[in-house]
Predict the 3D structure of the following.
Amino acid sequence: MLQTPPYEKFAYAYDQMMRNVNYIRWGDYIELLFKKYSCEPQTILDVACGTGALTLLLASRGYQMSGLDRANGMLQVAREKTAEQQLQIDFHQGDMLNFQLDRQFDTVLCTYDSINYASDEDELMSTFKSVSHHLAPDGLFIFDVTTERNIVEHFHNKTFSENHQDYSYIWKNNYLTHSKLCRTFLTFFIREGDLFRRYEEVHHQRIYEVSTVHELLKATGYKMLSAYDMYTINRWNRFSDRINFTAQLA
């Protein structure tokens, strides 16, 4: 058994495991926010882009896309898909906490709970600061967070598993209410020749209240434009499973 960093071996099966995610709907929603805030971005940075599903979708719609992710395994898959689709996307290896690309973008995205990987408020502030250095004046910062309701209702003490020809996985989740921390234990069995090798990853996601996100955005130089129930332009509520934020540098 090998312990690997989060998302390194996950990359092997990620697209298959996430096949039910409606990235077209996600892309449409982002473009709805562009219209609402009269934003016509040319350049977009997708932070924590993973295997690039949303990055490639937006590139196919004509945006000049760049992607950033900490996991080289995810980026390798993203680059392969980009070449297959004959798109032009710059991918960079880096941590959302402290990345430096020496350029600015009209919009910065950080989607699908990636912000929840900031383990505490200091890390969340570091992420916001890193993004601010790469956001053009009047640019939009669009990101989402998963909610405590979503974790408790759909993941806490639940196990998911699948068996495929080249890999199998077991996905266990546990939520610690006192620390607002969700721990995910992933075990993969990946075919290597005639045998399967076992790999394990541990993921930690922190739940953040809207008030906390608002305060930290303000503390790092942003004005929060909205906190919407995901895929809508309605204010978030206690039944929201995911909350989408849009912010701009003040």
